[in-house]
Every structure is written in C-alpha cells, then in structure tokens.
Design brief:
mainly alpha; about 60% helix; about 0% strand
Length: about 240
C-alpha cells in the first residue's frame, strides 16, 4: 500500500515517516484490549467487528477534530475560504459510515494541500479570534488522543481474523487500518507542532485553555462513548 504521510502540514515543518511500529511509538499494546477504558467508542466485546467499530469511531473523531481545529484557526486569521473548506471536510468525515480508506485519504490530502502559516497567529488580537484559537487547541488535543486510539484499533484489527459475517467488509476496513497505521504517526507529530505554536500564542496573549470536560464534549460530537475521566487521564500523559 502506498504510504501517505504529511497528514497535517504546517509551514516549515518537516514530515517524518514512522520507523517504528505504531504500537511501539505510542506505548500501546499490540493486541487485545484497547487503551484508556471507556474511550474509543465500541471497544466492548472482541473480534474483528469490535476492532473495526473502534477504528471507525476513533478515526472519525481524530479527523473531524483535526478539520475543526484548522477551520477555527483559519477563521480567526481571516481566511474564510480555507475555514469553510476545512469545516466542510469535517462534516464529510462525520457522515462517513465505518472505517474507509478513500474518505480518510481524501481528507488528509486536502489538509496537506492547504497548509496554514501559523506565523499569522500573532495578528489575531480580537476576543472572538482568541476564543476560536483556544477552541482549536482543544480540538487538536482530542486529535492527539484519538490518533493513538485509532492506531491501537488498527493494530488490533490487522491481527484479527475476520469472521464469516465480516468477509464482505473486511478488505475495505483492512485498507483503512493500514492507512491509519501508516499516516497517523506523522499526523500526531504535526498535531503536536501545531499545538506548540498555538499554545505559545495563547500564553503570550493570556488565553486560557479549554477544560477537560470541554474537550470531552468536543470528542462526544463523534464518539458518544467518550468519558471525562478517561479523557482526563489521556490529557495528563
């Protein structure tokens, strides 16, 4: 499968391809139960279907929040066209049923082809803009958590034998899992770079971060099973 990297392009940042297995990079298990109980929607039960359900929700939550973070920053910086583009991409991802390689790759390509120059953050001085930046940072924290969960789901899935009822959907789901394992480590790395720039702006301008409960509310947009205590544990790591 063709590697797809640079999932979240930031001007001046160099994309690094993952050289270690995704599970090793994040300190996640290579099989069995997914990390952070109660987070990752649909992890209950075992087998291929459970892993596929977890992957779908975790991947959707990561991508949706990524698009919303970029949309809010673009909007705060006055780039309405780019803000609308990312918002529409988030809406498209939210409507996808199941884990799907094509929709995921389309989203990541759109992000890669429409970078945001975060140097422009310094020009955001209005209160409405500052609020959008704070919310964007909260969205990106959710991205980092759910990238790791999606990778864990993908690793579990590719190690699991599909059952008779999974045969028809298995090829599509496995392709999505392979893309997640390949692309999300770079996405996470760039998400952290994004947050470094945004948090620097917030510190300079005395902008408060969202609370853990507020970030959990963002995650619940696509993962109704997100738990406040689990999110708190993840955010503190």
């Amino acid at each position: 499968m063709r590697k797809f990297i640079a999932a979240l392009t930031i001007v001046g940042a160099t994309s690094l391809a993952a050289s270690l297995p995704a599970s090793a990079q994040f300190g996640l298990p290579t099989g069995g139960a997914l990390p952070i109980p109660g987070l990752g929607g649909g992890g209950g039960g075992g087998g291929f279907s459970a892993a596929a359900n977890s992957l779908a929700i975790n991947l959707k939550t990561a991508l949706y929040n990524q698009g919303m973070a970029l949309s809010l920053v673009a909007d705060a910086m006055g780039d309405k066209k780019k803000a609308d583009l990312f918002r529409s991409q988030s809406a498209a991802i939210q409507s996808v049923k199941g884990a799907n390689k094509d929709s995921t790759e389309k989203f990541l390509k759109t992000v890669e082809n429409n970078p945001i120059d975060l140097k422009g953050l310094a020009n955001v001085q209005d209160e409405a803009g500052k609020k959008k930046i704070a919310t964007a940072q909260g969205h990106m924290d959710v991205v980092i958590v759910y990238d790791a969960l999606a990778i864990a789901s993908a690793v579990a899935l590719v190690k699991t034998q599909p059952g008779p009822s999974d045969i028809a959907s298995a090829p599509t789901v496995i392709e999505a899992a392979q893309l997640a394992i390949t692309a999300l480590p770079t996405q996470t790395s760039n998400a952290k770079k994004f947050n470094e720039a945004v948090e620097g702006y917030m510190k300079t301008n005395n902008v408060a971060k969202l609370s853990t409960s507020q970030k959990t509310a963002l995650a619940k947009k696509t993962d109704p099973g997100a738990k406040n205590d689990a999110m708190s544990k993840a955010m503190s790591n």
